[in-house]
Amino acid sequence: MERNIFEKILGQESLFIDRRAFDHAFEPDKLPHRGGEVDALVRNLVDALNGHIPSNMLLYGVPGSGKTVVTRYVLSQLLDKGEELGEPVFSYEINCRNIDTKYRVVQNIASQLSQRGDAPIPFTGWPTDRVLDTLVKRMDREGGVHIIVLDEIDNLVARAGDGILYNLTNLNTILKSSRCCIIGISNDLHFTQHLGPRVSSRLSQEDLVFHPYGAAQIQDILEDRAKTGLRQNSIGNGVIELCSALAASEHGDARRALDLLRISVQKADQEGHELVSPPHVRLAQSQLEYDQVTPVLRTLPLHQKLVLFSIKLNEENGLRNISTGEVFRTYSDACLKISVEPLTPRRISSLLNELDTLGLIMARNVSKGRGGRSKQVNSAVPRGIDVISTLSDSEALVAQASEEKYALQSRL
Ligand SMILES: Nc1ncnc2c1ncn2[C@@H]1O[C@H](COP(=O)(O)OP(=O)(O)OP(=O)(O)O)[C@@H](O)[C@H]1O
Ligand SMILES: [Mg+2]
Prior knowledge:
Elements: H1 7-10, H2 35-45, E1 57-61, H3 67-85, E2 89-95, H4 102-112, H5 128-142, E3 144-151, H6 153-160, H7 163-169, H8 171-174, E4 178-186, H9 197-203, E5 206-210, H10 215-229, H11 239-250, H12 254-270, H13 278-298, H14 302-316, E6 322-323, H15 324-337, H16 345-357, E7 361-367, E8 373-379, H17 387-394, H18 396-402
Parallel strand pairs: 1-4, 1-5, 2-3, 3-4
Antiparallel strand pairs: 6-8, 7-8
């Protein structure tokens, strides 16, 4: 009998001592470079312990800037202090990416306050006003201060409008023996533009912006996390610096940096290395890019795929800064070869804008003299990804088009 196939991996030494330190939900006990943001939250929320109502707040910042982790940290400390002082404080964290209707938000909070003997509130079916009434009764039954965190609040407003925020920010006028405070979190800085003026002014009584981390700040975060999660002396020179620099050059995303470090360590583990080194980080970076970009490539609609295919074909032939005219020529040629009706040049121009927005190409306007303007494009897909094969694998017509011969403009 062969040995069990799991045995080889099971016994293997790992550079991780605690993998959970790299989970997205991990809550570190220190939050370097977020002291100012922690203070701002504390200064406002302390009112919950003083018998006052904290202001509603809106927290903004790019993805991975620590909004969620900082809020959780401050609230857990607040709840501890409330318990110690005998001041009842309750907090609810609603992720509005999953819970994105008025009914479900209210149902979720009210259900967290249910006591033995309460009728369960169904996930759908009651009139929304009845759920809201139930929430108010249950909050008053508990008394104290209720802090409702609406994380990724922009999703809720996009899906359900601002009516729910109107109701929630109005609760303090209805509650008799309890108080409530709303904290909205968003990575869309222009989020309040989607709100009516009344809701907007009630919700953003205090705004707090989380600025993107710089490379040096991300380094401190990674070093702390490496101490918790990795064996001592397992990180080679330059590794933390490289992870931080790569993440900072995107938009200062600490989550991205932590992912890069985690995958780099996995790569070193897989190779049986005792030390993580910069080439592992490079491998991790291309894996992350691959995992991010290929699903986007695969799910593009047919004509988007054909346009991107045409750009790549020209680039592989040595052309850079490809004119829209040239893209259209190759695209029409490809359509002809696979018997697909081509879209008009105007439509292709808007497809190019969409590809630009998705970050798959870079388009720039160039002046052509006498006031004429035209656009030039280059693909922006990371170099390690084979665009044409990825497109072909997911779309038989592109595969067919890629087997044809094209008369392409040569390098100028
Ligand atoms: N100052 C910090 N110290 C330690 N870890 C941090 C710090 N800031 C962020 N992190 C870590 O980075 C990751 C992303 O942070 P978080 O989830 O709070 O970002 P976010 O601003 O809520 O992003 P998003 O807008 O995408 O929800 C988490 O794993 C978190 O633990
Ligand atoms: Mg978050």
